[in-house]
Amino acid sequence: MSWLPADFVHPTRIPVPGTALHLRPIREADTAIDYPAVMGSRERLWDIFGPAWGWPAETMTYEADRVDLLRHEKEIAAHQSFNYALLNEEETKLLGCVYIDPPECVGADAEISWWVVDELVATAEERALDALVPEWIASDWPFQQPRYLGRDITWQEWLTLPTVGL
Question: Residue 122 has what DSSP assignment?
Fold first, then answer.
């Protein structure tokens, strides 16, 4: 059984209200802007995602990032999971990501998380993204019980939940 309806069409460009930013599905071709964004914010991202995902490793190479983005691109095409890049209008800077995944733990039909680069922390752009994501999920995605990791449940709490299928 799929986690999404067979006829679901995922959004391809989502403006972030009140900013010059937008979201779009990430691609392998974004490696040149993704790698510096991730590694430039790596310590904070590790504090957020490291315990759960083991990402981003201190030793992550450009090539490893490229392979990871290719995997994301293929998963998006197959509707297995989604990674949306937060981009400036010209798409010359990647400023964060939004992940929409099938649930790993019971009690949700999707697990959603996101981040911004260090320079956007506590800015109007981050607040706009924080406001947008739940509204966008509610309006454009077919989920009844989305779980917002690091928002409505801490990552530590999430790690203690029973996993799906056990």
Answer: T
Q: Examine the pLDDT at 100 and tell me if it is beyond 60.
A: yes
Looking up residue 21, the CATH number of its domain turns out to be 3.40.630.30
Which residue in 139, 137, 129, 71 sits closest to 109, CA to CA?
A: 137
Q: Strand, helix or coil at 137?
A: helix
Query: Quick one: pLDDT at residue 1?
Result: 47
Q: In the predicted model, what is the mean pLDDT of residues 49-60?
A: 95
Q: Which domain holds residue 42?
A: 14-160
* DSSP designation for 149: B
Find tokens 């959004």 and name the residue: 11
Query: Which residue did the predictor score with more confidence, 48 or 166?
Result: 48
The secondary structure element, H or E, covering residue 87 is: strand 82-87
What band does 106 get if pLDDT is binned at 50, 70 and 90?
very high
Helix, strand or coil for residue 140?
helix
Q: How many domains does the chain have?
A: 1
User: Rounded to two decimals, what is the model's pTM?
Assistant: 0.96
Task: From 105, 108, 86, 93, select the one nearest 25 (Cα to Cα).
Answer: 86
- d(Cα 22, Cα 96) in Å, to the nearest integer? 10
Q: 100: left (phi > 0), else alpha (psi -120 to 50), else beta?
A: beta
